[in-house]
Design brief:
The chain is an alpha/beta fold. It has 2 domains: about 120 residues, Response regulator (Rossmann fold); about 100 residues, Winged helix-like DNA-binding domain superfamily/Winged helix DNA-binding domain (Arc Repressor Mutant, subunit A, Orthogonal Bundle). It contains 8 helices and 12 strands. Strands 2-1-3-4-5 form a 5-stranded parallel β-sheet, with helices on both faces. The protein has a 4-stranded antiparallel β-sheet with strand order 6-7-8-9, with helices on one face. A 3-stranded antiparallel β-sheet has the order 10-12-11. The structure holds calcium ion. The site of calcium ion (CA) has 5 residues, from loops. Calcium ion binds next to loops.
Length: about 230
Amino acid sequence: MTPTILVVEDEPDLRALVVHNVEASGMASLSCSTGSEALALAARHKPDLILLDLMLPDLLGGEVCRRLRADPVLAQTPIIMLTARTAEVDRVQGFEAGADDYISKPFSTRELILRVRAVLRRRQQAVAPETTRLTAGGIEIDAARHQVHIDGAEVKLTALEFRLLSTLLERRGRVQTRQMLLEDVWGVSPDLHTRTVDTHVKRLREHLGPAGDAIETVRGVGYCFRAPQEG
Ligand code: CA
């Protein structure tokens, strides 16, 4: 099925350029210039992915992102934030608002389309029926349903925390460097400051409670899931 991409950008030339490239790549597009239109279009059309400008005339992109994540129907929609602001704090805030990826302006349209494809592919893999249950250290991941249980109780995680936990569990016993995690979980090249990984691991541990102790910090390197595999 042709994926539909919602392009939210208030700068008309840039919006037209992104829409043109999305369509030239064989995908369908919807577009608008404000955050409130974005929320309305997303609710009506349920796009496969949203390209979301950070600085919009009405709402900030981060706020649009948070509202989408709070909507049970749209919570899982992949979001790539577009921004002219390159400060580290903006990038981290983008991820904390629940964005799947982040791209700084000016960007090449080729890179943008590659990122869109990568996020769509990851999302498809996440919902593929062959990916099933993974259990270790009292934590059970149901990849098909995007659910995590600890001792039978469901733990609510963001899409990003879910991918982070799945990646650590799949590779349990093996040390994952922050750079590896940035590439495989965030899908970005490791130019993004590695502290982003630390922030999200900290939050993931908080969500997991005592079970989160299985995620061990390997000083100066990264993280490792150490719990023994269970039957
Ligand atoms: Ca803007």
